[in-house]
Amino acid sequence: MDEKRFDEVLRDLPRSFNPPAQPPLDDMWAVIEDAHFNAPASVPSHRRMIRQAPWLAAAAALVIGIGIGRYNPRSAKTSDNPPPPMMASARELASDTSAVVDAYRDQTSHYLGQAAALLISLPAKDASGTADARFAGKAAELLVTTRLLMDSPAAQDPKLRSLLDDLELVLVQIARLRSERSRSDLDLIHQAVEQGDVLSRLNSAVATNQSSE
Amino acid sequence: MSDPRVELNSKWSRRRTAVDNDHRVNESQLIARVIAGDRVAGRALYDTHAPRVYSLAYRMSGDPERARDFTQDTFIRAFARLSQFRGDAAFSTWLHRIVVTVISNARRSDVRFAREVELDEANLIEANAPEAEPDLKECIARAVENLSEVYRTTLIMHDIEGYTHAEIAEILGVPEGTSKSRLSAARGQLRQELAAFKE
User: Fold this and answer.
1) What is the ipTM of this complex?
2) For the residues of B25-64, what is the DSSP string, one character each?
3) Sorting pLDDT into bands at 50, 70 and 90, what band is B48?
4) What's the pTM value of the predicted model, to 2 decimals?
5) A27: nearest CA in chain B?
């Protein structure tokens, strides 16, 4: 093999040498998630865990939402045929799924409640303004959760998705108050909240969630 | 008269573009959340890096199952040690150090295992079994396989996976010049191994 041919071989290596298959991302994640997040040794008591890491509950619930999407409880519904003995595991799955749904609902309510509280307590349009870092910080924090929710199967619910879209927009603006607050900023935020009917949709979403508990 | 809502939306849209990047869910936020046990953040972090980690693992192993095991092992280890991540290097660099270590450890035990198997099976192989002429692809695979571990890793990372010398140096913890000289040596050995190949 001459130099020229060898150079061709080198150039062709990315195509010819062990070209990777499509990564099985979901399958690998299932193993990683189980090993890391469900490992008994690393899981303290539920109450302590939530006290130490309040986001944990929300996070767990969100992932659980992914689980809901994957498990699709409808497929676990009873059919006309009596369940074979093997269906014990399906019953366990249904019970797990139910717990998952509950946890997910609780935490979504919690998030929506926090968002509503923030919007309700926003300074009035004409409030004189020392920039309120507290609001901005809280908004930035909720913004992260909003975006995680938007990327999760929770956003498959069109109503919630639309609410999250509007909330994201509002939260981005509130988070920006940290650095530059002006009356026009606040006006814009209040207008967006009012015109998008964000607060009443939030309340309605919280109520819907609570009534399903 | 223009619709105030349209006007507002357009104003919002412009402002949103301007401020959006400031508040993207950044990696350090994700890491903090994973440490706190946030699975969604874990998945987000995983989604960002897993394809590249898997691709490297696949190139190094040539086997989908092993690539999958290496990737899983890498993330399990990374998440377990995430609180030790100080942010001195980029998270991706830190993660790639882990995957390279995982693969390297596995290869070392493979070599030990292969030696034992070879010894056990040596007597079972017929001495005069006809051997098919290997094609170029096989020759390349064999030549890459025969490289020493550091040469092989450097060649795969640079020439195949497209890592820069700066990245390789940081991941492997060597000076950039070392990465360059290793690549040059690896190519030299490869050239030598393939020199006799006739198409």
Assistant:
1) 0.77
2) --HHHHHHHHHTT-HHHHHHHHHHHHHHHHHHHHHHH--H
3) very high
4) 0.54
5) B68
